[in-house]
Design brief:
alpha/beta; pyridoxal phosphate binding; Shikimate_kinase/TSH1; THNS1 protein; P-loop_NTPase; six-stranded mixed sheet; about 50% helix; Rossmann fold
Amino acid sequence: MFHIVRYRLLRLITQNSLSRTCLKLMFSRLVTFEQIPKLWFSSHSLAGSKNIILMGPPGAGKTTVGRIIGQKLGCPVIDIDDDVLESAWNMSVSEKLQDVGNEQFLEEEGKALLEFSASGSVISLTGSNPMHTAGMQHVKRNGIVVYLDVPTMVIMSRLKSMEVGRIVGHGPATSLKDILQFRKQFYRRWYDVRVLCGGSMAAEVVAEKVLDAVKRYQNSEVETYISTRSTLKRNSHKYFSDVVTEGLASDGGLFVPERGLPELTAEEWQSLIEATYAERAQVILERCIHPADIPASKLREIIGTAYGENFTCSKIAPVRHLTGNQFLLELFHGPTASFKDFALQMMPHIFAYCIPRSCNYLVLVATSGDTGSAVLDGFGRLHDTDKQRIAVMSFFPEDGVSPIQKSQMIGCQKENAWAVGVRSDFDFCQSALKKMFTDSDYTGYLTVEYGTALAAANSINWARLLPQVVYHASAYLDLVHQGIIAFGDPVDICIPTGNFGNILAALYAKMMRIPIRKCICASNENNVLTDFIRTGFYDLRGRKLVPTFSPAIDILKSSNVERYLHLISEGDGQLVTQLYNQLENQGHFQLQKGLHAKLQQDLVAGWCSEEDCLAAIHSVYSTTGYILDTHTAVAKVVADRLQDRTCPIIISSTAHYSKFAPAILRALRITEIKQNPLSQLHLLSSYSPLPPVHWGLLETLKKNENEGHRVCAADLSMLMSCIETLIQNHFM
């Protein structure tokens, strides 16, 4: 290990330059807070020169809310309509609009805004101010823009009751609803913070929400992350940008929000019922990611890129009725045909935004099947400049994934994205990566020798887990929108579970006040989680991983259970450390009765045999014409056994059936099964009664049928050597 010894010598010389990679981010924070006056000495006191600028459609209540805020803060209140425009024009706004027409009105209004200046005030904009770019750029320079986001139907009702006959842009050829929808793009362009305003929300309540939102915007220090194994009270906090970059905590734990996830009120959730998937994602993620880490405008850009044309269904994550009280949440419409696309079309762009520019990054991921192709595809879609400094390696069990999954991973390789087979199982791959991340000598050597830092893209990385919360919340809102339930009615969720990330995201949605009653954990024959949830005893002793038809959940050591135990133990890092040290050293741990009782308030569990999995696929196809993939079939079997039919149950359909063609052909009793993955897909396609195979999967296999990949022995030093070789080839 000569390179490690050499690194230790170099570290003595370059200690200052080897501070954590977020040093740049810390510096930028300090600059920001030096430049911006401290506006908040208490929850309702304002100092300094910054304005609070209220923006939203006509009828949003900007004027009334502005007056309430001004009274609370004891500062000037300026209404652009009354105090600026009408004063400058010597006529009412409606008269001016009638006099000059729509286009000229916007220009006149913009000019007035350009000549306006104020400081330390509460400013209520007009509904059309945001449509004038130069005017908004001018006013935004000395203010925090707060978007009062009121549902369109509520605004239309208010305008009708106010007898407002016309707004800017409204005419015989354009409906009021169309104008209001059109304007949203301008509101979304300019705001710093958003306040969701339901139809029945009193102005005083909205004012309080505005103050809270501005206070949050001004103070990023309170939104920090800690390790699940942290026992320190000081110097252990990280910001969102840090945890995205670092992935795994230095003590081996996983990062979690120190104060938990934010809660949305029932009225706030209900305001999203009519929203698109991307709009729901924007609102939820804005609440979970501080704007100091990712501003709202950048987050919108990332979400638009992630959930754009690369998804084949416009609803992104549609919910469809299966049978009885069972509904399927289809999570396979992304480019690689699995639920992993929801995080991995977004996470690479988040990662590229958060990391410092001064260092190259190699992202490592261990996969039991679906993550591999999703991470390779996601990072392979980065801009060329980002590809030069960010590369990804996906380690998978060489003989532990389906032939189509392997071919897909190989086909998704790009100039900065590589698939590496390991002659072992997923648990070895995941453990090996964790050892590398926590080996400071090895990671430090790579930084000094090659200017390259390691990062993680498994669900151990918080940025992988967070986007998954969105589709669980969205599924519930879709059932409300479809009239299946009223908001507040409970639902159960059943999820095929391996590494516990997907089901943990559902539990986080529940924490955020989506009315989820129980999460049903569905396992295959590798049913360690079923036993754990039922007994509180996590026992790996004597267990051997069994290859199944549902390889993505062929996992024994489920990483994200650690986050859940930290949650229900109320942040007891010492207990989590004790449990996981015992698991690592002795192969088991036992929960205390009180903690196990808490777990069972959220979770129930069951498992499914291989025979029952295939039988479920055949039965559902025979009765409905729908084809479940093998993982969804596992969840369907367990849901049938454990649901009590007193509420709807949402089954997560985590992959497209065509990724598992041999098992599907066997389940449907089609005897001719070819060995070549592309031939298997063609065989499925040839049966006209079947739903079509996934477009992206077929195209990937067609284009890359003859590509190869690297294969490594199940040896940590061999994996390290492979990593070093690829770093040399890509970055040097």
